[in-house]
Amino acid sequence: MKRDGPKVELNRLRRLVREAEDQFVKSHLGAPKLSPPSRREILDVAAYVVLIHGAFENFVEGLALWVLGRSVNNWTMKKRTTRSTASLLLYQGIPPNDAPGQQLSVYDNLRNSLDLAKTRVSGAVQSNNGIEIQHLRSLFLPLGVNVPDDPILTASLNLLVKMRHQWAHQYRYAAIVTRSANDARTTVSDCLTLAQKLSAEVAALRP
């Protein structure tokens, strides 16, 4: 059986970051240089950034789906509610009764509402294509998860997004801001710290 959960998702992210660093930036690390990065370093950093961005997307989507699945299953199977359950119900609301002559139980009302919330949030996760802080909040706030708001970490996340967009979309009329391997590694390290904090928030929720 495939394991999942916040610890597994975080370890998977850390492993990919480590592999990408060894492959693309390790050979360029060292004392700061006065000269601009070489073309090879620029391209290696670009590959590193694009891979890390994708890995971070997978990480946040995996976390969100884990919380969602656990929250719905805990009510359906155990009639157990958590902050995540309450948050999903607040965002979704109780669906109308399609059979007015049939009296639904409280359990069925909540189950139906959670099923609708699961469909809606799952769709949002599947269509998600960003890791900007507003994307993270739109994914996790309905699940009852607070997204870390440390200004240094969120600034690094925004920088990672900007660097990835520059290379993935190859802006024709905008100047690409080159970053050294050292700079990119520092940015990714901050993003890993944010990922660790988000994973801890999810684990503490105990959905």
Quick overview:
This protein is an all-alpha fold and 207 residues long.
Tell me the layout of helices and strands.
Layout (H helix, E strand, L loop, with lengths): L5 H20 L13 H40 L4 H10 L13 H21 L6 H8 L10 H19 L11 H25 L2
Helix pairs in contact: 1-2, 1-7, 2-4, 2-6, 2-7, 3-4, 6-7
Write down how many β-strands occur, each being a DSSP E stretch of 2 or more residues.
Answer: 0
Q: Please indicate the percent range of residues in DSSP E strands (runs of 2 or more).
A: under 5%
User: Which radius of gyration do the C-alpha atoms yield?
Assistant: 21 Å
The SS-based structural class is mainly alpha
Shape: elongated
Number of domains: 1
Q: What is the H-and-E element order?
A: HHHHHHH
Mean of residue pLDDT? 87
Low-confidence stretches: none
> Kindly, what is the distance between the CA atoms of the first and last residues, rounded to a whole number of angstroms?
20 Å
Written account of the structure:
There is one protein chain. By secondary structure, this protein is an all-alpha fold. The protein has one domain (6-205). Helices cover 69% and strands 0% of the residues. It has seven helices and no strands. It has helices at 6-25, 39-78, 83-92, 106-126, 133-140, 151-169, 181-205. Helix 1 (6-25) packs antiparallel against helix 2 (39-78), helix 2 crosses helix 6 and helix 6 (151-169) packs across helix 7. The mean pLDDT is 87.
Which terms summarize this structure?
207 residues, elongated, mainly alpha, 7 helices
